[in-house]
Amino acid sequence: MEKIGVIGLGNIAQKAYLPVMASLQDQYEWHLATRNIEKGQKLATKYGFSHLHQTLDQLIAEKPLAVFVHTPTSTHASIIKQLLNAGINVYVDKPVSEDLQVVEELYKLAAANNLMLTCGFNRRFAPFNQELKQIADKRLITSEKIRENSPQPVKFAIFDLMIHSVDTALYLMDEPIQNVTNHLVTSEGNLEQGYITLSSEHEQVQITTSLVGGINLEKSTVQGSTERDEVTNLSLLNKYQTGVNIQESRPDWERNLITRGFEPLIIEFLNAITHDGTNPVSPDSAILSHKVCTDLLQTL
Question: Model pTM?
Answer without folding.
Answer: 0.95
